Amino acid sequence: MYYNGPSKQDLVISTRRNLAFNADYYLDHFLTASNKVESSRLCYENSEDAVTYNVFTEMLTRNESLRKLVGHIVKTRIDQTVKLYLWGGEIDLMQDQFTVYEPLKEVRQRLEPDIKQFVTEPDIMLIVPGKILICIEAKFGSKNPIAKDKPVKEGEKPKSMASLIERYCDGNKLIDAESILDFSNKKGCFYEQLFRNLVFAASMAKLAHIERWFVVNLRSQHVMNIRRGKSESLPVVRAVRSILKPQYKKRFSHVTWEEIYGICVKGNQDLYDLSWYMKNKTLNCRRAFSIS
User: Model-level pTM?
Assistant: First the structure.
C-alpha cells in the first residue's frame, strides 16, 4: 500500500501517488463521491482498479487506441468514437462529468432490486453507441471467482450456480436467456462474475437496441505464467463458452494486459507515458507484466 498516514487527506495523497493519469478526475468523481464501491482501495499497489483506471483513462485521451482494442475484440475495423465506462458510468474527462449508464441502472433494478451492497458493477464497458457493447471483467493479481454452495446473507448476491441461474436467467424478463445460454454441456468451473457479465451485457444491449454485445476476461499473462499448473491457469474460455449456445460462443473472449500494450500502446508516441507505466508497473513489488 502507498501509505501516507491515517487522515482523509493522507488517503488522498496516497491514492494520488498510485494514479499516474487523470488523478484529479478520480478524486472528484470516485474518492469523494459514491460512484464506486471500495473507492479508497486504489492506493494499494496490487489494486486492479488502479491499473484499470490508469490504462483505460489514458487510452481514452487517444480514442484511436480504444478503437483498436474494440476492433481486436469484435474482429471488425472501428471508425466511430468509443465511449469508456468504468464501474458503470461514462468517463468524460473533457466535460469533467460522470454519468451512470441508464441501461445498467434498469437491469440492476430488474435483477437486483433487493441487493443492498456490491450490486453488479462491470469493471469496464466499451460502447460504440447503437452498434457494439463490450463488458470487460479485469483482473490484475486476483483470480476469477467461482460459484460456491455457501450461505448467503440478506441483501447479498447469490453465490451458488443454481441460485445464480435462478435469479439472472429464470427471473430475467429482458432477454430470452434460454436462447443464449445452455448449462447442459457445462465444462469446468462456473465463473460467477463472468456469468453475470454475460447476462448484464445481453440485457443492457437489448435495452440500448444494440445487437452486438461481447464479454471479455482481462488478465495478466505474467501472472498466468507464474501460476501455470494451478487451477486458474486452465482455459477460462473453454469453461465459459461451454455454457453458451453455438451462435454466441465467440461473444466471450480472453485478452491480456500485454496484448493491450502490443495492440494499443506500443509505438504510439502520444502514449509514451502509459508505455513507461505498463513496462514498470509492479505487483507484490515485482514486475507485473511480461513487457519488454
Answer: 0.93
